[in-house]
Amino acid sequence: ETARSERQPSVPSENMTDHGEDAGEKQDVEQALPTEPKAAHSVFPKFQKYLVVSMVTFAAFVSPLSASIYFPVLNTLSQELSVSSTLINLTITSYMVLQGLAPMFFGVFTDQLGRRPAYIIAFFIYFWANIGLALQRSYVALILLRCLQSTGSSGTIAIGMGVVADVATAAERGTYMGAVISGTMLGPAIGPVIGGLLAQFLGWPSVFWFLAIASGTFLLVYWAFVPETSRKIVGNGSITPPRLNRNILDIIKRRKANSSTASTITIASTTPLQPSKKKHRIPNPLASLYILREKDISIILFYNSLVFVAYYDIVASLPHLFQQIYNYDDLHIGLCYLPFGLGCSIAALINGKVLDYNYRRVARKNNFTIDKRSGDDLKDFPIEEARLGAIFPMLYLALAAIVCYGWALEKNSQLAGPLVLQFIMGLCLTATFNSLSTILVDMYPQSPATAAAGNNF
Question: pTM here?
Answer without folding.
Answer: 0.74
